[in-house]
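Example 4.3 (complexes with small molecules)
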Amino acid sequence: MIIHLKSNTSTEEADKLGVQSQSIVLHQNGTYILITPSSLKEVPDYLQTHTESSFYMDSDIQLASKKYLPNVREIQLGDATIGGSTKNTVMITGPCSVESEEQIMACAELCVELGVKVLRAGCYKPRTSPYSFQGMGLDGLKLLARMREKYGLAIITEVRDSTHIDEVIEYSDIIQIGAKAMYDQGILRKCGAIKKPILIKRGFGTTLQEFVQASEFVLSGGNPNVVLCERGIRTFETKTRFTLDLCGVAFLKEYTNLPIILDPSHAMGYAYGIADLTRACTAMGVDGLLIETHPNPKVAKSDAAQQLNFEEFRNLYRSVEPVANAVGYHLI
Ligand code: PEP
Ligand code: MN
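Answer. The structure with manganese (II) ion bound is encoded below.
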């Protein structure tokens, strides 16, 4: 249950009531908000006189629920606004990993050429093998910062674990929590303590309930700027890398107030399917798309098979806009 306390409630009182009701106490827009476990179905007597309004919830999808906020949250990703009343579908692209200055600047130039405002590239890669390329680390973040200075693009980059979270927060405009890191409560809580937008990717074995609950850690920590990213789940199918769960996207659109970005690149795992999938994703009316591109995918140090070369991306980009328009969205 979410309980908004009356405006005359003091900090001490809010804290005391929070302890009494086993709630998280959130201070937002001048109001103290108690988030109790969802098993609480009625406002207890001792809270009645302090309560301005209350929202009963049927599960621990609470702050992210449309029962609490009926409209999709408006979130600023650099110069791009998504959610709210915008009906914008933001295109995010860039290589899987930052590999060199030449590579990242070439990707930035492609973005500038097409009007893409947000560049994504990883510096700390969550690889399945310790012998694979692990990312350029801080040197990569510095290259991204130089790219932003030169081209004005917003940076999204991922945090792999808590050892480098502070530097990722410092250098990025949007923080990505990857499919493997989304259960890390240290990362989630730290992202809840800041205001930069957080993009949470769904783990490949994560239920929709667990996925949204991960976002609740960030939201209840005080950061209202959370975006969900569907990137494919593991099924019995082995011909594609993962299975993009578009049914899950329909669920998230229906029941949550968080913008949704779709990542066909990691779901498909192969470049040949990405353009068709991207158009299918766009037709769902979503807040964003995340596509991996590389100046020369054959030599990419991670996710080589799925990255698009620039010509493939240009063609895809041109074909997406009419699809977005057909469902009342604007590609930005
Ligand atoms: C990535 O975005 O490059 C990545 C590693 O994705 P995921 O966390 O979805 O596997
Ligand atoms: Mn990747």
